Amino acid sequence: MKVLKGNILFILGMLLFTGLHSHAQDDAEAEEITFTMNLSKEELGLNERLRVDFTMNKDGDNFKPPQFNGFNVVMGPSQSISSSWVNGKRSFSKTYTYILVPTARGSFTINQATIEIDGQTYKTTPKQVEVTAAVDKPNSQKTVDDVADESLHLVAEVSKGNPYLNEAVTVVYKLYVSPNISVTNYRPLDNPTYNNFWSQDIPVTKHTAQNGTYQGKPYRYVVLKRVVLYPQRSGQLDIEPLSLEIFVDVPTNRRDFFGGRIYTSTSKTVSAGSRTINVKPLPEAGKPANFSGAVGDFDFSVSTSKTQLNASESLQAKVEVTGKGNLKLFQLPEPELPSSLEVYDPEYEESINTYSTGMEGKVANNYTIVPSFRGKYPIPSISFSYFNPSTGNYKTINSEEINIEVIEGPTSGSANITSPSANKQLVVPTGEQFHFININPNLSPIGIDRFFGSRLFFILLLAPLLLIPIAIFTFKKREAIASDVVGNKIKKANKLARKYLSTAKKELGNKEAFYVALEKGLHNYLKAKLHIETSEFSKDKITSILSEKNVGQKDVDGFIALLTSCEMARYSPFSNVQMQQDYEKASEVISNLDKQL
């Protein structure tokens, strides 16, 4: 009996081990990457269609289909993606589908397709297809998915494939829909991030269907998305694809009780495909020394609100660039004004609209100038240089010299200095030139100095007693500070912010290092004051939090403008003067925030 029980336990153990081994093997096989080719049929008539599916269980890159010798491609490639979670396990499937028609009778081979998945190249197995004479009944009725595949196409139209650095490139995403079906809704699955581009979306307020053609056939199309890109790096740049899930109604051959056609709803995933453009660098030949990165077609002017005024009155000087191009991505030139004029920091002004051809409008710096003395002050000519991609040349525009005349007011001290030898006159004393000297000082003799019993004696005697409560108060204060963990962290972060600002000051003249240090200093300052982590930083969050803290809107805008300058410094050239202004602005903004927070 004991032997029988032992055998039964041994058999159960073996079965359990075999089951576990089989389950582990199944899991291993489920994780295996597969890439297969499936044919709708291996034998078809000359008047029939062949559907070829290339399916993978993990997404890959660089898909290369075969040549399809002996067939014409009438549709494809269309993409379909399926992803689901079952019992905590993810199931993924992506399929490239082609619809082929044979060109002759015979035996043909559908050669292997290739794709790269996780750095490895996978290939399908070639398959044979036999094409016979035409048949009486061609392919069976198309499925709803077949009709949707043939009737939906998402296309990305790129305005320029070979632009210059910082030249506008427009991408328009169009969805082509066959008149045989109707689209009910759609949702984006994967929006492109446009790395290495400065991007600006052009909102599509109304989706109006228009008539057009796709591959020579009549279609309706709808513009889903427009975006203007300004490349920030030369060379080969990829525009990531846009993927959508489209919900459609497909007609069937069935009809309802009243004779109306019955429609079936389905959804399909379509992708615009990745596009690559070749960005040309700006030519070095003929590049002006004052070129600040402006690319487009611009006009430049310098104007003043008045040319005659009195001392202590103010006037406005405007440095303005108008036209079409990358208006937000370059620095305006600065006027060189006489040192005797008091000049305030400029107020930046912009009025820019973004169209499908790029940005158009104007940007300007408004300077407030206050003269202190009477005289004539010239505002020298200023030059502005830009690159015109239409002509492929640089152009420099010089403003006209402006003369400012101060009519009334004090004369500068330097203007009243005359030569010692000129206009000598005899000075006649009047007897009043020494009237300020007091000839009766009321002096009294100093008595014998006595220390004991004097005021100084009692002060020194009582001083140690007065120091005792001061020492007790200081000790308690230091103890409270030591127990204030949050306060200590804030002080530490404040020191860190000052450290980064000091690093930024040392890096003046080195654009990238300066703005990296400046941005770190600003972030650490907010981290100390608002008790939020750096990972939570965004301009919108910073604006909302500072507004909740009742910080003035001017100071909030100043802080956001500094962060914007740090971002723009990655793409645009910044002068040493601009860096110095940004550093001083950072110190001023932090000081103002300290007073309010």
From TrEMBL:
Is the keyword Ribosomal protein in the record?
no
Q: Which residues cross the membrane?
A: 456-475
- Which key words are in the record? Membrane, Signal, Transmembrane, Transmembrane helix
Cleaved signal peptide residues:
1-24
The record's section on InterPro entries has: BatD
**Which Pfam family, giving just one, matches this sequence?**
BatD
Q: What is this protein called?
A: Aerotolerance-related exported protein
List the source organism. Allomuricauda ruestringensis (strain DSM 13258 / CIP 107369 / LMG 19739 / B1) (Muricauda ruestringensis)
